[in-house]
Amino acid sequence: MTEWLLDGLLIFALLATAVATLWSRDLFRAVVIFIAFGLLMALAWVRLRAPDLALAEAAIGAGLTGVLLLDAARHLKSGRSE
């Protein structure tokens, strides 16, 4: 029973962060929610007993991609074209 509840909450959180990312008007907020989505997705991979994919998702999906998107958002906000 507890496992089904945890899985249901995880699915709901994934759907909520995905929708919030798509509907966010603020670029910085959208990137932060996207990073949270990546971390939740890593947790989903752990629940599916795929620790190698979870580690890759956390490192690449949430970590590296999040940092690159935050840097791109900073450059877009400042108006520079370097």
Major sheet details? none
Structural domains: how many: 1
- First-last Cα distance: 54 Å
Strand/helix succession = HHH
Instruction: Tell me roughly what share of residues is in helical segments.
Output: over 70%
Number of helices: 3
Q: From the alpha-carbon coordinates, what is the Rg to the nearest angstrom?
A: 15 Å
Total strand segments: 0
Tag the structure with descriptive keywords:
about 80 residues; mainly alpha; about 0% strand
Written description of the protein model:
The chain is an all-alpha fold and 82 residues long. The protein has one domain. Helix content is 87%, strand content 0%. Helix 1 (2-23) runs antiparallel to helix 2 and helix 2 (27-47) runs antiparallel to helix 3 (51-78). The radius of gyration is 15 Å and the shape is flat.
Write a compact overview of the structure shown.
The chain is 87% helix and 0% strand. The chain is built from three helices and no strands.
Topology overview:
Blueprint: H1 2-23, H2 27-47, H3 51-78
